[in-house]
Structure formats: C-alpha cells, structure tokens
Amino acid sequence: MHPLSPATWVDRVVDLLRESRSILFITGAGLSADSGLPTYRGVGGLYENRDTEENIPIEVLLSGAALESRPDLTWKYLLQIEEACRNAKPNSGHEVIAAMESRFDRVWVLTQNVDGFHGRAGSRNVIDIHGDLHRIRCMRCSHARVVDDYRGFSLPPKCPECRGVLRPDVVLFGERLPAQQLSTYKEEMARGFDLVFSIGTTSVFPYISAPVLDAYHFRKPSIEINPGETDVSEFVTVKVPLSAALALDMLWNAYNG
User: Fold this and answer.
1) What string of DSSP letters covers 169-219?
2) CA 219 – CA 14 distance, rounded (Å)
3) How far apart are alpha carbons 221 and 237 in whole angstroms?
4) pTM of the model
5) Domain spans of the chain?
6) Contacts of 19 (CB under 8 A, 6+ apart)
7) Domain 6-36+90-130+177-255, what fold?
8) Which of 62, 63, 147, 232 is most solvent-facing, going by the fewest CB within 10 Å?
C-alpha cells in the first residue's frame, strides 16, 4: 500500500479510474451506514453488545436451523431488522457507484448488504451475495415475491398459497451462499477487473477479500475506502481513511471536474 496524503489520494484514484475499463466495487455495512443503518454483525446486528430478550445469541436465532425449528423467534428479529432499514434510502455513495456503470465498459458490485440499496440507486450489475430482505419466498412451495416492507406480517408469516412459512431470501447463519449469486461471482471474478474498490467492509469473509488479494497477486490496482484498518488494508494500492459516501463524492466530483 502506498501511503498518500488527503491532498493527493483523490488525484491518484482519478488517474487509476482513467486507466481502467472494468471496475469491481465490493461494499459492506460501512456504505449503508451513511444512510443511517447500523454497521452490524451478520444479518441483523442491531444486537451488538447486548443480548436478545431470550438470552440466546443473535447468531443462533438468525440461523437456518432456528428458522426451521422456531420460525416465530427468527421472524421476531427479522421484523426488527427490516423496521430499522425501512425508512432509510440509498445515499450519494450508492448513486456514484450506479452512475459509473454508464461511464465504463464493465462495472459490477459485490455487496454483503441485504438492504437492496444498490438496485434502488440504479445499479444493474449487482451480486448481492447475502441476498435481499425484500425478496420473500415460501419454504414449502415455489411462491416468491418482492415486498416493500414487512408491515402486516404475522409471526411467522405464512404463504398465501400453501400456508407454509415464508422467509426472506437472505443468507442466515449456517447457510450456504446462494447458487445463482455464487455462479455470477465466479464468472465475473474469472474475467478479472482492471480496478477493485473495497468500501466499508472489514473483509473477513474469504469471498470478499479474495478480489483484493487477487488484484495484489496479479499486480492490478485496488482502493480501500474505510476509516479503520481491515484484513486487506496492507494489500491495497491506495488506502482512503474516510467514510464511504464522503470519499466517493470527492472522487466523483474530481473525476468529472
């Protein structure tokens, strides 16, 4: 990593953008934090530093096994998570990433976030590797739909067709990554990217850190936007210790200036 002063990192990243035709944006909770969402652990994470009412770890209640055995408890906390996201909107950082799709040959977003903000901001090439809270499907039949919010849901909500339990199309603790998203991920990673951004993520999952490590291995440039140090900080070309939306706004203004 090349340490750059705040006065020079923008120019350096703009130069890298002008030299690139394909870009991958990897995004985590730090990007949605600028929309007012908590930077949470796992799927829910509104429970950092406090226990659930049942004195059961949130990772247990938000697991695939718990959804099978006690869907009422899992849905109790899914409803709280969705409520916390309900009034939030995509921020300028999401909008900058979406705008880049029309300016470069190939732009993809790999996101850990389940809020659906990238799609709402206009991004079309999104790998939501952990799913989306707004996609609902039945655990028994093929019923599936997209919902705006969870208001009116029972505990647990039931399928209107077969009365099976509904679930959000997200990756709960102990579950595998979704096959469709994983297939797209592998295809796009195999094609490679000229430039990789890691934004607002601690990069603890191997499939999230891998594109940055691949860029380092193949001597491709990468940028990390994160106020803190992460597992990939030492491998990136440029480290930007700022919040996501602020840094992306500064970068986009300079690129278009």
Assistant:
1) EE--BTPPPPHHHHHHHHHHHHH--SEEEEES----SHHHHHHHHHHHHTT
2) 18
3) 6
4) 0.92
5) 6-36+90-130+177-255, 58-87+136-170
6) 194, 195
7) Rossmann fold (3.40.50)
8) 147
Catalytic residue among 2, 94, 118, 130: 130
Pick the CATH number of 58-87+136-170 from 3.40.225.10, 3.40.50.720, 3.30.1600.10, 3.40.50.1100: 3.30.1600.10
Helix axes 179-191, 206-217, angle to 10 degrees: 10
Q: What percent of the chain has pLDDT over 70?
A: 92
Q: How confident is the model at residue 112 (pLDDT cuts 50, 70, 90)?
A: very high
- For CA atoms 208, 209, 210, 215, give the dihedral sign: positive
Per-residue exposure over 154-167, b if at least 16 CB sit within 10 Å of its own CB, e if not: eebbebeeeeebbb
Tokens describing residue 98: 């979406």
Q: Is position 130 annotated as part of the catalytic site? A: yes
Does this chain's domain 6-36+90-130+177-255 share its CATH topology with 58-87+136-170? no
Residue 211, token pair as written in the block = 């594109």
Distances (CA, A) of 179 to 59, 127, 166: 22, 11, 19
Secondary structure E strands in the chain = 22-27, 106-111, 126-128, 131-138, 144-146, 166-170, 195-199, 222-225, 238-240
pLDDT of residue 83: 86
Output the pLDDT for position 249: 97
101 residue type, one letter: E
Structure token pair of residue 253: 């203004």
168-215 pLDDT tens trace: 999 999 999 999 999 999 999 999 999 999 999 999 999 999 999 999
Separation CA 42–CA 122 (nearest Å)? 25
